[in-house]
Structure formats: C-alpha cells, structure tokens
Amino acid sequence: MATRSTKDRPTYRCSECGFAVPKWVGRCPECQAWGSVDEVGAARAGLHAVSAGPVSAPALPIGDISVEAARARPTGVGELDRVLGGGLVPGAVLLLAGEPGVGKSTLLLEVAHKYAAAGGAPALVVTGEESAAQVRLRAERLGALHPQLFLAAETDLAALLAHLDAVRPGLLVVDSVQTIASPAVDGAMGGVTQVRAVAAGLIAVAKERGIAVVLVGHVTKDGAIAGPRVLEHLVDVVLHFEGERHSTLRLVRAVKNRYGPADEVGCFEMHDAGIRGLPDPSGLFLTQRTEPVPGTCVTVTVEGRRPLMTEVQALVAASALATPRRAVSGLDSARVAMVLAVVERRGRVRLADRDVFAATVGGVRVTEPAADLAIALAVASAARDAPLPTDLIAVGEVGLSGDVRRVSGVGRRLAEAARLGYRRALAPPGCDNPPRGMAVTEVDDLGAALRQLG
Fold it and tell me: Checking phi first, is residue 32 left (phi over 0); if not, alpha (psi -120 to 50) or beta?
C-alpha cells in the first residue's frame, strides 16, 4: 500500500495570523479565531452565476391584474366567515389546529357539507385518522350528507393527489396533515421532514388548480402547533380552535390571515347534534338571577374585535390555614394576585387572613387588564357581603397605585352593555359620548369606585 509523502499532504493555514497546522481544525490554536483555517491553495466556494430562465407569467401593471381569482367564497358558517374575512379564497391553504376532541373534524365536516350544498365544485374530505365508515356515521348524525360531498380514507400523498384528479373539488379538507406521508421522502409519518414535504406538495397543487385547502394540525402539550415552524409560514391562514372539554363554548381565533383580519374571533357552541355558531354569545357568560348576590360584577371584554359581556365572581371566606388560599379559574392568577394586593392596600379591604376564590362564568378565559376593576369590585363586594347593583358594569385597568387607567375600545364596550340592558357603568376618565340611556361614572382610582358604591 502506497503511503502519501509529506510533500503531497495538504497544508492548512490560518487566514488571520498565518499559523500553519498539519490538519484542519475548527479553531486556530494560535489566535483562537473560529473558522479561519483553510487548506493552502484550495479555492473558496463562490456563488455561481445564474442566467435568466423562462417565466411562468409575464409581469403586468398592477392595475391590469384581475382580482376575481382572489374573491372569498362564503363557507355557509357565519362565525367562520367572520374570522376568515368573508370566506375561503380559491387557492388558499388554511391550517386549523386544536387539542384532541375539541371539535375540529366536526366543524370542518359541517363546512364541507355547506360548501357542497351551495353548488358549483364538489368538496372532498380526506381522513387519515378514521375510516370512511366512521366519518359517514358522524355526517349522518350531523345531517351533513350530500351527493357533492366526497369522502376518502388515505394516508399516502400520491393516492390523495389521485383523488383530486378524479373528483376535481373546489374544497379539500385533510384530517390531518400529520397522518399523510409522501413516498418520495424518507422519514416517519408525522415527522418534520414528512410534514414539510406533504404541506409543500398540497400548497403547490392548491395554487396550481385554485383549490381551497384546509389542513388539520395537531398541537403539542404546550398548545403550539406540532411539526416544523415553517408550516405556519407556508400556509396563508392559521387558525386556533380553542375550548374546554367541560364547556360547550368553542373559539376559533385567527393567528395569521393574508386575506382578512388577523385578530378576529368566532364563537361556537357544541351540542349533541354537532356545532353551531353563536352570533351573540354574551348570554353564555352571564348568570340569570332575580336578586343581587355579593361577590359578582359584570365587565365587557374584547375578543378580537368583538365585545363580550363577562361575569366575574369572587368568594372571600375566613381561613383556617397559616397561609390563606388563593384559587383562580378563567383568570390570570398573577394579575388577580396583584389586584388583591391593591384592594387590600388602596381599598382598605382586609384579605390577609382570608381565603379568596375568583372565577369567570361560562368557561371563558379573561386575561386582558380591562377586567381589573370588575375583579376588584367583586372581591370587595364578597369581603363586605354587600351586593352590587344588577344593572352595573365595570371597565378599567387598575394600577399598583390604585389608579384606574383607560383601556382600548371603551365606547364599543359600553355600547354592548347598553344593548343588553345595563344602565350604569364605572369607567376610567375620558369616556366621550356615552351610550344613550346609560349613566357612566368616571372614577380616577379604586377608592373612588368603592365610594360610588357606598
């Protein structure tokens, strides 16, 4: 076996200090520079010149481009159309993610049925998680049977594309993208490589044929969309389907939308016969009672662009523990703890030796600061066993100094409360043009709000 002579061996030299080493290293031993050691005489890799190639379509003045291909087509589900900005756009790819069992498949089966019943191109549902017979039983229970609604159970991307050639749908629902595998790519089903390849293939087909594609995505235990992050960048619309298992309320929240608002929220209610939209969901978050009860206060939160009436409840009881309990449901625990400290220090309400429980009604989750004043009044009402007026709402952010700060959309919040029959409101300063029939009292701090209530 011939050995390589010393003269034939390559020499490596640091481009920073000129120090020579017999073999390549990532860091120069002399000057400690990273990535500066190169083979002597070796040419560095450079950029290759790219020549002009054929174009898919000629460039046109922007005023000459037709927008008919980007017109949204309503899905027939009003709350989903609200979130999408009017409906599904041909050629658009939508990603709907949510926890298992929240109702993603039920909602999309209803959308596919409405799309097929509207006439025009058929709808195709491809399921990789269930058999065709199982989906057929759900469709029968929902009343979603239609001759133009096609169903296929496939886990292979090539077979899915063959179904597209046979059916030629206007809407394609893939449930879910993690269960489809491409034979041209190595990797386990649901892995990063497979998900990226399947999504890229479906996006290319959607743009080429003008098919609206809805991909169902799984979520991790942290609530993030499973799979590569690039999946969210590739699609046109990203929606999150949220809801508690023990509540009938479901929220569809837009995270990304190239064709409409990205801060809109749609409300749905799950029931035995399926899922239905809630154009006016405020009734779910209020308790109907004839007599006032201590520890309750109503506020108006804003989900996306929609004001929602929300009832905050609090219970204050004597504690037998050295460290009193603080339990929260539906609220931000850190923010509630801050409000409790302000109520005790600025509102002179004794809470140090008492257990405090705070919650919302209807399973809704409230995290915005606009509910601070309602939380503070509910806690003070429970601690003093003094009920608040039933026609009163409270809106405002409470600072550590006890100041009540202005929040966004006060006018919309007060108008929604007036529409539902509330006649009194506590709000931060600067509320111009209050709704007709509503007496709005502006309060500068928490102490002033408590004095207004006696």
Answer: left
Host H or E run for residue 13: strand 12-14
Query: Please, are residues 305 and 261 in contact by the beta-carbon 8 Å criterion?
Result: yes
Length reported for the chain: 454
Instruction: Identify the CA nearest to 453 among candidates 366, 398, 399, 373.
Output: 373
Let me know if residue 336 belongs to a domain. Answer: yes
How far is the C-alpha of 254 from the C-alpha of 83, rounded, in Å?
A: 6
Please identify, among 229, 255, 279, the residue that sits at the C-terminal boundary of a domain: 279
Dist. CA 186–CA 52, nearest whole Å: 33
Report yes or no: 379 and 410 within 8 Å, Cβ to Cβ.
Answer: no
Please state the pTM of the whole predicted model.
0.76
Nearest to 364 by CA among 314, 300, 451: 300
User: Contact, 75 vs 86, CB < 8 A?
Assistant: no
Q: What is the largest CA-CA distance in the chain?
A: 102
> Considering the domain boundaries, does residue 375 fall inside one?
yes
Mark whether 361 and 391 lie in a shared domain. yes
CA atoms within 13 A on the CB side of 234: 21
Cα pseudo-dihedral 215, 216, 222, 224, rounded to 10: 10
Residue by residue, DSSP assigns 378-391 as HHHHHHHT-PPPTT
Tell me the angle at which helices 192-209 and 157-167 cross, rounded to the nearest 10 degrees.
20
Q: Are the CB atoms for 282 and 416 separated by under 8 Å?
A: yes
Amino acid 41: pLDDT: 57
The boundaries of the domain holding residue 262 are 74-279
Residue type, 212: A
**Per-residue confidence (pLDDT) for residue 9, from 0 to 100:** 61
Per-run averaged pLDDT (10 residues), the chain, 454 residues: 52 78 84 79 54 84 84 90 91 92 91 92 93 93 93 94 95 93 85 88 93 91 77 91 80 90 86 83 77 92 87 94 92 95 93 94 87 96 93 94 92 91 92 86 92 82
Backbone phi, then psi, for 355, in 5-degree steps?
A: -80, 140
Q: Are 102 and 227 members of one domain? A: yes
Ramachandran quadrant class, 178 (left: phi over 0; alpha: psi -120 to 50; beta: rest): alpha
Tokens of 371: 């509910």
